[in-house]
Amino acid sequence: MYRRWGFVRLLKLLLIRFVRLQGTPNEISRGVALGIAIGMTPTFGFQMVIAAFWAWVLKESKVAAILGVWITNPLTAPFIYALEYETGRTMLGMDFVSLPHELTFATLSNLGWQVILPLCVGSLVWTVFSWFAAYYLCLKLAPMAKRLRVPRWPRKPTS
Q1: pTM given for the model
Q2: Tens of pLDDT along 49-83?
Q3: Burial of 22 (0-12, 13-18, 19+ CB in 10 A)
């Protein structure tokens, strides 16, 4: 039954792509860390393009960077962005944002800066932390992942 779940299949395909990456563990770790760091920024929707561009500029593994971006997916994004917002709000000493009583352009634009500024500041903190954590974790896991053999999905018998 779990084979029909798209999310489980996606995780397996990402694992297979990670196992098949070419390069030394250091090269792969730098690419994955770059992707995860970009995945932690509030650029949802453009992260894969940004990761591929910076991997090309820095001559890192583009596939590893794009795989790393998937740290932020529709399931994890609300938790990551909430954590980053709270971190930034706490660092800046800002109050919680409350919804305005009237929805005018002026109130919405003011509300935008009350959300975007703490989100950007918090994302800087978590981006740096996640880059270091991802690099060293991937550096240790990449050699073990190369030895993995991922089994194929069992095929249905054809009649």
Answers
A1: 0.72
A2: 999 999 999 988 888 888 889 888 888 888 998 89
A3: exposed
Under a CB-based contact definition with an 8 Å cutoff, are residues 67 and 28 in contact? no
77-91 confidence digits (pLDDT tens): 889 988 998 899 899
Query: CA 138 → CA 30, 43, 70, 119, distances in Å?
Result: 9, 23, 15, 26
Tens of pLDDT, residue by residue over 6-58, are: 677 777 777 677 666 777 778 888 888 999 999 998 888 888 899 999 999 99
Helices (H), the chain: 6-19, 25-39, 47-57, 62-69, 77-92, 105-146
Q: In this structure, what DSSP letter does residue 156 have?
A: P
**Angle, in degrees to the nearest 10, between helices 77-92 and 105-146:** 120
By CB atoms closer than 10 A (0-12, 13-18, 19+), residue 43 is middle
Rounded Cα distance, 109 and 3, in Å: 45
